[in-house]
Design brief:
The protein is of the alpha/beta class. The protein is about 35% helix and about 15% strand. It folds into two domains: about 130 residues, 3-Layer(aba) Sandwich (Rossmann fold), CATH 3.40.50.720; about 180 residues, Rossmann fold (3-Layer(aba) Sandwich). The chain contains twelve helices and twelve strands. Bound molecules: NADP nicotinamide-adenine-dinucleotide phosphate and glyoxylic acid (GLV).
Length: about 325
Amino acid sequence: MSKPRIFVPNRVNEEVIHYLQQYGDVDYRDQEEKMAEEEFLVGLRNASALLCYSRQKINASILEQAPLLKVVSNIAVGYDNLDLGEMTKRGVLATNTPGILTETTADLTFSILMAAARRVAEADYYVKSGQWKEWFPSLMLGKDVFGATIGIIGMGRIGEAVARRAKGFDMNILYYNRSRKTDAEAKLGATFVSLEELLQRSDYVVVLTPLTAETQKFIGVKELALMKKDAILVNASRGATVDETALIHALQEKRIAGAALDVYEKEPVDPENPLLKMANVVTLPHIGSATRETRAKMAMKAARNAIAALQGEIPENLLNKEVL
Ligand code: NAP
Ligand code: GLV
């Protein structure tokens, strides 16, 4: 019997490829850049499994060209790039990589909160560009983090890990979530509040919900208007959970003090995007889980999910259980 074809169009750790080769013929392209669409579709045509990053959209038109496909294994926890309905209809399993990237992403989320609060990127540029001619008392004045109020929207794995970091900074922790998290309340002293109250009271509003039909532009004109004038918005979820145009206006009109962004409505972000011109906005290139250790673990988890599916087992991180 011929071995299943496993398509890996982008670079992953070598151990992952060795692992996959024990179970199938691996069609591997050891390159970082996204594959051109036509080439991708050629690879997909004979593939039983695909390992991909979240920048790869999997929708009906792609699936139509993948007659042998049994599993799409996302190397990411977020899966808004996958059309689960279409995959289920065609009997294709979808998996993701939750958990192992939680702490790494929480580190990054908290670090951009700190960077925006204490103007770290702006001050670094000020020194490196030779603007620092004299020290004076109001130089790069920022905003305290310790003891301030953080409002976490989406108290899931990463939200809770951010709350743990906030507790270490003696912050007052508010959260809003679809369901109540009594564990986090007991362990971290977090207080469940309405979205409106969270926005009105928080010094730092941190968005960590997945991107779904419900959370699309979750933070828009109305929500931004409820925030304090000296508050900072942090988004490490997906760009589209925040209405970017509304955010730009709120910042331009100084209705909020700043923002820290790892994600954007369109990625890579347009170099002309006004957010990139604002000194009070920290802008990172979607690197929440980007450490060597975590990226390696994510790819291996994705590989194990794919192999489980190919072997007729239920993958640990199956997203569309209805497919069974
Ligand atoms: P998670 O454990 O599933 O947490 C998501 C939380 O959001 C859950 O508590 C969920 O509530 C809540 N939620 C979902 N829809 C909601 C709604 N409409 N209203 C209020 N709360 C809602 O996921 P995670 O592992 O923490 O990851 C969260 C997201 O972070 C991912 O989906 C991904 O988009 C993003 N992410 C970004 C990076 C990056 O590089 N920047 C890295 C990793 C992840 P329930 O508990 O009630 O379901
Ligand atoms: C990264 O953005 C992820 O969802 O894992």
